[in-house]
User: Which sequence fits this backbone?
């Protein structure tokens, strides 16, 4: 996978929303695809977001925050009369993206990244699967952020069924230990890697609660420990985003995984970076931009 001249490093497909701790609190950027795109852009990847919001104030705040990071938003759709999803208020537009609203295949991207929550319901499920299937036609590869815990919350009985076709189509997958437990029960991390690889992806990136990462690359398993002097990551999207950005920029998978840990430990969430204690695999200007979201 190489950076593309005249194309995108990333095409992020899935959900965009606003998150609030309480109804009266300020909103921050939410939605898996939007948060992944924010981190990727902060890491200086040429990134476009394919998602849907309502034509309302929350949608404008989502758009404004991503524009500051220079995310390409020509495929961030707005639906008049409907509202942007505000977590945890259901029935917004984050799962309303349709298959026919994906960019045409001549839009090139080194990596098409799909947020797993988009597999929850139609029409977003068909759009997500279509994006994964079309990644090679765009001249690149496909990646899936699993989010099995969110899928379980929305549709427990269908979680494995909706994930299996996505995993069969994808080149790499990232997940948390909590996602592995939802899918496979109380198996250890090595076994979870083996089971996931058996469903299709060549690369499997599994983050432990302390930020350490297991990486399965073909038949090899790598262990990348988290820095003991740092707190555990608080943003589930930061590590996978940094891993995939590094892959899109030609880093070896094992190095990409190790570098992603430092980035994940440097940010609290897409709206609040921590003070870094050492060099990071990203330009500092990008991290400063995240604080404005």
Assistant:
């Amino acid at each position: 996978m190489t950076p593309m001249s005249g194309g995108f490093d990333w095409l992020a497909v899935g959900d965009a929303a606003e998150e609030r701790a309480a109804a009266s609190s300020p909103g921050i950027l939410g939605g898996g695809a939007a948060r992944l795109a924010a981190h990727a852009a902060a890491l200086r990847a040429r990134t476009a977001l394919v998602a849907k919001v309502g034509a309302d104030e929350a949608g404008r705040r989502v758009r404004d925050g991503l524009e500051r990071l220079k995310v390409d938003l020509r495929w961030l759709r707005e639906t008049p009369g409907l509202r942007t999803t505000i977590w945890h208020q259901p029935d917004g537009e984050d799962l309303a993206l349709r298959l026919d609203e994906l960019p045409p295949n001549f839009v090139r991207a080194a990596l098409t990244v799909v947020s797993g929550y988009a597999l929850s319901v139609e029409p977003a499920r068909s759009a997500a699967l279509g994006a994964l299937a079309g990644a090679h036609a765009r001249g690149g590869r496909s990646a899936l952020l699993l989010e099995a815990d969110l899928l379980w919350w929305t549709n427990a009985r269908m979680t494995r069924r909706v994930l299996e076709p996505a995993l069969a189509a994808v080149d790499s997958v990232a997940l948390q230990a909590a996602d592995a437990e939802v899918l496979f029960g109380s198996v250890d991390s090595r076994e979870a890697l083996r089971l996931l690889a058996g469903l299709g992806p060549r690369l499997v990136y599994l983050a432990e609660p302390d930020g350490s990462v297991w990486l399965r690359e073909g038949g090899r398993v790598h262990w990348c420990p988290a820095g003991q002097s740092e707190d555990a990551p608080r943003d589930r999207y930061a590590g996978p985003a940094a891993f995939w950005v590094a892959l899109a920029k030609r880093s070896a998978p094992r190095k990409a995984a190790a570098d992603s840990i430092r980035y994940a430990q440097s940010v609290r969430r897409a709206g609040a970076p921590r003070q870094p204690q050492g060099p990071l695999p990203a330009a500092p200007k990008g991290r400063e931009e995240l604080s404005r979201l």
Summary: The radius of gyration is 17 Å. Residues 8-290 form a domain with the UDP-N-acetylmuramoyl-L-alanine:D-glutamate ligase fold (CATH 3.40.1190.20). Residues 276-292 have pLDDT under 50 and may be disordered. DSSP finds ten helices and 14 strands in the chain.
